Amino acid sequence: MTIKEVAERYHISQDTLRYYERVKMIPEVTRTASGIRDYQEEDLKWVELAICMRSAGLPIEAMIEYVNLFQQGNETIPARLELLYNQMEILKLKKKQINETMNKLSYKISHYEVALKTGKLTWTDDEEE
Amino acid sequence: MTIKEVAERYHISQDTLRYYERVKMIPEVTRTASGIRDYQEEDLKWVELAICMRSAGLPIEAMIEYVNLFQQGNETIPARLELLYNQMEILKLKKKQINETMNKLSYKISHYEVALKTGKLTWTDDEEE
DNA sequence: TTACTACTTGGAGTTAACTCTAAGTCAATA
DNA sequence: TATTGACTTAGAGTTAACTCCAAGTAGTAA
Fold first, then answer.
1. Is B98 exposed, middle or buried, given 0-12, 13-18 or 19+ CB atoms closer than 10 A?
2. Protein residue with the closest CA to the C1' atom of nucleotide D25
3. For A106, which of A23, B93, B101, B121 is 20 to 30 Å away at the CA?
4. Where does A1-72 sit in CATH, by number?
5. Could you read off the pLDDT tens digit of each residue along chain A, which spans 129 residues?
6. What whole-number distance in Å separates Cα of residue B23 and Cα of residue B128?
7. A124 touches chain B (CB under 8 A)
8. Where exactly are the structural domains of chain A?
């Protein structure tokens, strides 16, 4: 699979794909005899994981570390687990913060909706805007 | 309340507080006669909202637009509602992506945990790493 | 064989969100 | 009165994550 096809498939730019490889966020991609990238199933798995991590807002640095550990073999499994636990914690926190913000925005939305119907703003004393 | 106290209270730098004001992410903060910031309850509400939005990963630009609409008065309530709905949608999507990533990481974690116990990796054919 | 297109690399440029620096003001203490 | 420390501003610098560019090569169509 060419870089163009991969880029289209995952809605990501070719530049970004090359960038991910360059910074070692994914292992080196399989090449043709003349040095052109020819993504195999395994390469695609790494691309998917990278995109998945990034879409959740996890830093590239974490993914680089994970790939690095992976390439050192099975003795690094405990370290990889540790890394995965850490990222899970970060995601839990992110979710919590998103929920809090959603609650805050919902509150504002409901007040504005009432305001639109009644023509009056109805904030309580401790939450004027 | 001085900028120092506000910074300590919200675990945010004084520089960031000044920056938020400079880019108009919050309205101009109340000042003393000699021009020093003296945060009032209402100023703090805006700071809280700004921090809340940012902690959920929403762009500063959205907050700037919201403050801008607010300062134009009640006729902008429909526009503010629209903006809030948009940000809610963005947050829903973020949550979805986080959930997907958490599922993917959980899957890896469980496999690694089994591997640690049994000494063998147990990926199925379609998910080698 | 010439032209065209898609690929390659190294390196420079961009954007968002801070973060820091320098030079200056002001209130309070030694 | 001198100095200390917290504040002020404008503007420069930093970081993460891309994104673009220039110069070169490889494979295919006319």
1. buried
2. A34
3. B101
4. 1.10.1660.10
5. 999 999 999 999 999 999 999 999 999 999 999 899 999 999 999 999 999 999 999 999 999 999 999 999 999 999 999 999 999 999 999 999 999 999 999 999 999 999 888 877 777 655 556
6. 48
7. no
8. 1-72, 80-123
